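Researcher: Here's the sequence for the chain we discussed earlier.
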Amino acid sequence: MSSRTVSLHADWLSLVEPEGQFLSLPVLKRAFPDGLGAIPTAIREQLRDRYPHDVAPPQTQWDAWIVWLLRDVLSWGPYYRTGEDVAAYVHAVPEQGIVLRADAALCDPQKDKPRTRLGVPYLH
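Model: Thanks. This is the structure I predict for it:
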């Protein structure tokens, strides 16, 4: 992998709060071996402006930022689904006594079926 690709991954990671093993440089290298592309200056400024900076921002601010990021910045548009569109996506984990429910889904543009189901945690 080229140093330019590593630099692009690091650039994207600098704009978010990566947590755990799921969003890290090694994971991004495997998922996007050619990188994610350079971040235009205008988008970088909007990311910083729109990111909820309050110590304890309300859930609605986080939700709006995530929707904007996935639908507009990452161009998922109508294929990023929330609410009633994803209410049926549940998975029981009996050994833990919990049921996982998707907060959102990224749908395949050709099949219009979920490609990835997301749990969007409220971090603050």
